[in-house]
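Replying to the earlier thread about multi-chain prediction with a worked example.

Input:
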Amino acid sequence: MPPANTREEFEKAALPLLPAAYRFARRLAGSDADAMDLVQEAYLRAFRTRDAFTPGTNARAWLFQILYSVFVNTYRSSRREPTVVSLDTPDELAAPAADDPAADSLRCSAPEVEAAFGALPEPYRSAVALVDLEELSYEEAAAALSCPVGTLRSRLFRGRRQLAASLRDYALRSGYLKERSRP
Amino acid sequence: MTDSTPHAREIDLHELLDGRLEPARRAAIESHVAGCASCRRSLDALRDARTALARMPPLDLPSVLTERVREALDHEAPRRGGVRLLGVRLAPALAWSILAAVLVGLVMYRFLPRDDVSALAGEFDDLRREPVSLTRITSDPAELERYFGERRLGFDARVFDFGMMGLRLIGGDVREIAGRRTAVFVYRAADGSVVVCQMYEGRVPAAAGAEVRRRKDDLEFLVFDRDRRTVVVWQEGNIVCALVADGDRETTVQLAFAKGQKMDGGTW
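Result:
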């Protein structure tokens, strides 16, 4: 984003990012009304702090960082989120279990996928949303979430793993997938 | 590969999925996965979970959100000279140009002299609509003449009965046309076509733009075409008379001859 000192310059640089900001906000906040409030507040703060933006760096990551900060400080505290007890570094993650789901047989519907995604604990959900849905790099996503890349990895991997497990459960309950007999 | 073979680290499976492994490391992991059913299932599960995310319904930007953000920014920092016109936000220079042009247009329309013939023709457009907007609705020429007398036009507006020519009087009005008080009366034919007669104190418009000049007795009739309407104008003393019609030009001219001749003879 080029230097956006005036209102017009700010709008020109920031408004094209509105669809992505809304999607991220919606993934975080859940409801449409909360997402719009979140985006509006994030844009106001971005405008107030526009001088802090470094031209040549990733504007989307900068805007997401502000949006996430607003969410954490304003919205998350008022929501009941699943508790995350550990944010291990990736190297400490366990090796995949031998009975991990045979995912090629997963045929979950869109609402089931959406429910599984929405059930992810928030730090995992935001990491998955940024990397797998908004296609940010690990480094960009880490900057947006104001965390080290290692922590981003941990959240992302755990989120994906939990998502895969949830989808497998849905598939088993729905009869798409039969429980494999353990060796 | 047996169960005692060390499995790939989970981080390697994710980074393989995300294309972040160095070529040598990637080749090693791919080789291991190819021979390890457990790691292959894990990789497939992660890949399919990511693929499943793409099946979630798209989140389209609500149409109101852009405007909401702009309004919030308005409170923070009003746009420099930004102007809303009929609900549309315009650049200041453009907005002021439009406003200036509209104002100039209104002033010109209201106060600057319009071409007399165009003004006469323009009035016709209003009077040919249904229902016609006339103050006095009557088919009686005498009643309409009394109405004009009451309005103190300063001249006698004689209303000719064109019934013999298939035109029925609808009614009349006194209007301000091109800055002059003008007696207006309207006739309608059986086919719905309309003839409007207008009279005011003054001189006939400059004849330069007349397509045709016709003479009947001692009167000169100027014939104009305006957007498929025929305007016939002639002078009777200090009164300008005009007939406007959207029918055949010659028929309109003959009607003007009849009225002019009649008035000239004073045999109403």
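Confidence is low (pLDDT under 50) at residues 82-105 of chain A.

Feel free to reuse this layout for your own posts.
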